[in-house]
Each structure stands twice: as structure tokens, then as C-alpha cells.
Give the backbone structure.
Amino acid sequence: MTENEAVIVINPGSTTTKFALFNRSGSVYSDVIQHHQDVLDQYDLVTEQLYFRHEIIFPVIKRKIEELELKIKGVVGRGGIVKPLEGGTYRVNEDFLEDVRSCRYGNHASNLGTLLASRIARELGVDQVFTVDPVTVDNMWDKARISGVPGIERVCRGHPLNVKRTAREVAKKQGIKYTKARYVVAHLGGGFSITALKGGKIVDVNDGLLGMGPFSPNRAGALPLRGVIRLCYAKPENEVIRLFSNNSGLKGYLGEEDLRRVLDRVNQGEQQATHVYHAFVYQIAKEIGACHIALRCRIDGIIITGGIAHSDQFIRNLKSYIEPLATIFVMPGEFEMEALAEGAWRVLDGREKAGIYKREP
């Protein structure tokens, strides 16, 4: 094992492409490219952006590899929306690529991660291509899937990369085995994943994109059914989806999805901003409490992560509800790049066996 050995990490977002080079000790180079929305709007499927994004990032990656004199051992890309999977690291094969390329299970920016990783690996002559804890990791308890309406099932959809990585770090700090630990992990970013994590597996989580949990900066969360029914009969489906997933939450009430600006208005005494903000904190706390109950009130800690965890005022307000439940660990930001790199190294160094993806007929 030498310091010049590295893996390439690719993490596409809706309007960004993050990429980095990691050795076993951590990042040796990282960058993020912002893409103009009007350019991306030219593509119907997100996977049609492959060539466009590749032509921007590949020359930079290649130049940095040469400058840093690195030996690339593998390439790892964020996993897209595929069939439900066990958590862990997977080898990227043609079955996986076909499902993300076609957007069979969903049209999401993360589908580009393994497509970019595979193409870059091929151009560099690297045969080790991985993904780690794709978006559709699913270890939910069967009892958690029941919605109350036959034919409608709760789904396991969230932020498994960041949720599981922060839990690994907290378990290490506490000196306990990650595979034995129980945590409630609240990933609070643009979308929310409030997760019951038991033995390293996500056993319950809200679907933060459409229909579950607290409202977020721009998403609706759980809603009273009567209002939903009325709205669905009044508007076309695509308008309802756009409203619930992009124009609700703080943005819907206040025209603002940046919590910092919302708090500025709260601290200036604006009544409506204060009213909505208090509801925002309350709903998050209530969902954390639900996960605490789901784990039978026996947990090793509550982990608050994501971009919103940077706000000291928000953390103080949230703690006023949840502090009696368990030790609270605040880990601001997201650690997806680290999680991807660490998953690849675990397989490359023989500490984990990579899963094999098989496409369903």
C-alpha cells in the first residue's frame, strides 16, 4: 500500500458534478463543477447529459492524476435509482448500467454517477468500478412498508451514503461496533431523511421526496389527505408533483428555501416567518421521536447531519425538544464523497466483498 495509490470519486447532483481523488488517508484533490440549468433543460433524461458532463470533468481528472503522479486503483460513482438493494459496495456491471441508463426506476441525477465512473475507468484502463449504498438501498422492516391502503406501499428512499457514513464515525467515537449500534440519524439538507438505523441497516425512513416526514426547505412532507385529494382533482399530475417536490415547505410559505434568510426574518420579528419556522423545527423533532419509538427507545445516539446542521440557532431549537431522548451528535454537511471512497477501499483492500447487481426481467 502506497500513498500514490488513489481512487476516483464521482458524485453528480442536479446542477453540479463533484469529483475527487482519494488515497487511503483521505482526499488529495476535489472539485465541483456548476452546470447552468438552461443547458441541462435541453435533455429529456438526465442520463443524456453523460457526454456533456464527461467532457468537462475528464480532462481535469486526467491532468490531476498526472500532476500528482497517482496510480488509480479504482473508480467509484454515486449509485442511482435502481431496484431495491441490500446496503454495501457493488461492482458496476452492465446490468447496473443498463438500469440507470434507461432510468427504468427513476430519472435522477445520481443515475449519472456509475455511467461517468464506468466511462472514465474505461478511458484510463482501470477495471475496478464500484458504487456504494445506492439511493435505493432497502433494508426496511416489512411492518414499516404498510401504508394503510392496500396497493400503496411505503418505500425506502433517502440519503443512505451520508446516513451510514456519519453513523460509522459516531460508532467509532463511542468505541462501539457499527454493526451492533442503534441510531436515529436526521439528514437535513434540501431533502430530509430521518432514519432508524439498527445494526448498520436502515430499517425505517421517511420518503422525503414525495409524501412522508416533515416539510423541508422546498418539499411538502406528509400532508392531510383531504387537501391532497382536492388538489389532485384541480391540477394536472406534473404540476402537483412539482408543487410537492420543489415549491412547498419553507419556499411555499415564505418564498425562501435558504434557512439562513428565514432565520434573519425570524430574528427581525417577522410573525409569519416565526410561525412557519417553529412548525419546521417541531415537525423534524416529532419525526426523530417517531424513529426513537420505532427502535423501542433504546438507542446509542441521535445524529444530526446535512447542511441545515450548520445553523447553531436551529440546533439549539431542535435540542429543546429531543435532548432528553439520547446523546446528540451534530455533524454538519454531508460526507458522500468520503463514503464512496471508503466503500471502494474496503473492497480493494479485502475488508468487504462487493455485491453483484442482477437486473430484473
Summary: The chain has a mean pLDDT of 95. The longest strand covers residues 26-34. The longest helix spans residues 271-294. The chain has two domains: 5-139+337-356, 160-333.
